[in-house]
Design a protein that fits this description.
Blueprint lengths: L1 E8 L21 E3 L2 E6 L16 E5 L2 H11 L15 E7 L8 E10 L4 E9 L12 E7 L7 E6 L3 E6 L14 E5 L2 H11 L17 E7 L8 E10 L5 E9 L11 E7 L5 E5 L3 E2 L1
Parallel strand pairs: 2-17, 14-16
Antiparallel strand pairs: 1-7, 1-9, 2-6, 3-8, 4-5, 5-8, 6-7, 9-13, 10-15, 11-12, 12-15, 13-14
Length: about 290
């Protein structure tokens, strides 16, 4: 069984003071950081300090050689293995250690998103909880390096929220042909509201298809609409939903638009069903990757 979650960290001062971002460099809020693997395996010998719980997950950041070598000496279980080069001070090392009490047999850093406005580093980690047929208690880890960014260290947890696609395509009948329609995101928690939307959404189809099954009130629907587009070169898709550490549902939407080969008026859309969420829901565009 695989478990996916996010750890949001305002980047740690586990090492020396953080150097400022190089002059002339700017980062848009919410960008994917490219990273490379330094080491990954099933058992780390690193021991947390006395103030930290033993056997629990830890996310560590290293910004200088001294702290990195101190960690590596413990982590490598005393073996004569040289510490991988990181590229300090322009780059830093991040270690995720799942902990022996987590029940994980493997761990992998899947994505790192930097939120410049709040100085948050969102680290998405996937763990495999499939039991191992061996007596040794695993302590899986994944250590990566990425661009060195400023901040202080706080751990939070964010969880992937499940969803399924109800309908996706190029042309919704909802406000179809409206030149002033620049797109819309909708949260449809009640069945009458959903059916009203479905009627408008399928108004360009004859005969209109029946509405998809949604288990109201335990489920709800989310819709994202691209808006008026003069050809078939636009697209929109909900790619990820997570619960955030500040109590909201974050819906990540991927959008693309370029001149298409056919001059057909379109209104791209994606409609999904997800477990009901009573708190705030906000939509964001998918982050762009930067080095």
């Amino acid at each position: 069984m695989r478990r996916i979650f996010l750890i949001a960290a305002v980047l740690a001062c586990c090492a020396s003071p953080v150097p400022a971002t190089p002059a002339g460099t700017t980062l848009p809020s919410g960008v994917n950081l490219l990273f490379r693997t330094l080491d990954r395996g099933s058992r780390s010998c690193w021991v947390p300090p006395e103030a930290s719980p033993i056997g629990r997950p830890h996310l560590l950041a290293f910004r200088d050689w001294r702290s990195w070598l101190d960690f590596w000496g413990q982590h490598s279980c005393g073996r004569e293995i040289p510490a991988p080069p990181v590229g300090f001070p322009m780059r830093m090392a991040i270690a995720y250690i799942a902990g022996s009490s987590s029940g994980a047999s493997s761990a992998e850093v899947k994505e790192i998103i930097y939120d410049r406005d709040r100085r948050l580093l969102l680290v998405q980690v996937e763990e495999d909880r499939t039991p191992l047929d061996q007596p040794q208690v695993p302590n899986p880890y994944h250590i990566v390096s990425c661009r060195n960014l400023p901040g202080e260290f706080v751990l939070h947890q964010e969880v992937r929220w499940p969803f399924r696609t109800l309908d996706i395509g190029l042309t919704s009948g909802y406000r179809y042909g409206d030149r002033g329609f620049g797109g819309e995101n909708m949260i449809l928690r009640e069945e009458p509201r959903f059916l009203e939307f479905w009627d408008a959404h399928t108004s360009n189809q004859s005969p209109p298809p029946p509405p998809p099954g949604i288990d109201f009130p335990s489920e709800m629907a989310l819709a994202t609409m691209f808006g008026y587009w003069p050809d078939n070169g636009a697209s929109i898709e909900i790619v990820k939903i997570t619960t955030t550490w500040f109590g909201a549902l974050r819906v990540e939407v991927s959008k693309g638009a370029e001149p298409g080969p056919l001059p057909a008026l379109t209104n791209p859309f994606h409609l999904v069903a997800t477990p009901r969420w009573e708190g705030p829901v906000f939509f964001v565009e998918a982050a762009q990757s930067v080095k």
